[in-house]
Amino acid sequence: MNDRPRTFGVLSPGGLRNFADTLRAENTGALLLVVGAAVALVWANSPARDGYAALSGLVVGPHALHLDLTLAQWATDGLLAIFFFVVGLELKREMVEGQLRRPSTAIVPILAAVGGMAAPALLYTAVNALSADGAAQGWAIPVATDIAFAVAVLTLFGRRLPTALRAFLLTLAVVDDLLGIVVIAVFYSDGIAALWLGAALALAAAFAVVVRRSGSPWLLVPVAVATWGAMHASGVHATIAGVVLGFTVPVAARAGRERGLAEHYEHVWRPVSAGLAVPVFALFAAGVSLSPEALAGTVADPAAQGVAVGLLLGKPLGILTATYLLVRLTRANLDPSVRWADLAAVSVVAGIGFTVSLLIGELSFAETSPHAEHAKASILLSSLAAAAVSGVLLTWRSRVHAARQTRHLEQVPSV
């Protein structure tokens, strides 16, 4: 019997739970996303850049099933389906039990999300329409908000801000995700094959039955993989399978259980999404050249310009304009604890595109297009700029609220 201590051993059940809980934290997911992107940028701009390109282009999978994909494509089409499954679960919970269940509380962030998607798309289109070599097909790139990254920035820099702002950003980002999914499904489907799409929907229905009656992972995982494969073959982007499967999971808790299946599966799969799927996708998606020549090309490319203008200006402009018009023209009101300056700071946070923007960028331009690399670089730089600016604004607003709370406590007579 070997009693020698091991340097790296298997985690205990308690340690494994703590590790999974760490991965569920918004800050951890955002950090791993940044780490994946940073590794990609360093690798793609190092002397070993050819190795990065070779790894990204390595083909794996059976040709007979049209699944002979590169590792980069597996990360985009396969791993991101896990991310979208978690998004689907979150969306359904919000619609059944959360903010989206009540129109009175959901109307402001919903219309803010619509404005925050329309304005970036319009600004991108305008920038590219005014250029001789514009690339109009990238209009949807700046419409997305990275919910994990955005909430992490709000958590780090806006700790003293009213909790209503966090609810506003979460609801806005959830609606943003839903509309982004619709954009991907409608505008980035390629020659839909009706039989395969029907098979995907039939398998999703089978998943819905199994998840309610059995819940056995030995049945659910194969059905989920088959649904993904059929969706991939149908021409609809394969990640949509994750959303569809997420929507089939019931939200209400069964008798004798504290939480429903949607919350349970979100709890189980979020660490996989945050700790594996999204960072690996960032590793393969964010590897763009940042040489002086490449940056000069990015600055001069109308596609990159449209992305930057859309994320940095279009997002806050659309969110604030839609919210202002709603408040002025209807009986809707902001939460009493929220000021317009607070809302402006949060609207800048929404300019962090990252994950879904990178996905839409890959779908908008072919790998051989110069716009593809320039758009990716613009997404990364603009998202980091939005994070930095919003961090400053949120810190300022947090100090304002902290000072207001201090004055209030000083005015309260002691007993």
From TrEMBL:
Question: What is one Gene Ontology biological process annotated in the Swiss-Prot or TrEMBL record?
Answer: regulation of pH
Reactions accelerated catalytically? Na(+)(in) + 2 H(+)(out) = Na(+)(out) + 2 H(+)(in)
Write the record's keywords in alphabetical order, separated by commas.
Antiport, Cell membrane, Ion transport, Membrane, Sodium, Sodium transport, Transmembrane, Transmembrane helix, Transport
MF terms (GO), sorted A to Z: sodium:proton antiporter activity
Task: Give the stretches traversing the membrane.
Answer: 27-44, 64-87, 107-127, 139-157, 164-187, 193-211, 218-234, 240-256, 268-291, 303-327, 339-365, 377-396
Bilayer topology reads: Multi-pass membrane protein
Q: Can you list the GO cellular component terms from the UniProt entry?
A: plasma membrane
- UniProt key word Transmembrane: yes
The record's subcellular location field reads: Cell inner membrane; Cell membrane
User: What does the protein in this record do?
Assistant: Na(+)/H(+) antiporter that extrudes sodium in exchange for external protons.
Family to which the UniProt record says this protein belongs: Belongs to the NhaA Na(+)/H(+) (TC 2.A.33) antiporter family.
Classification via PANTHER family? NA(+)_H(+) ANTIPORTER NHAA, SODIUM ION/PROTON ANTIPORTER NHAA-RELATED
What protein name applies here? Na(+)/H(+) antiporter NhaA
Q: Which organism is it from?
A: Cellulomonas carbonis T26
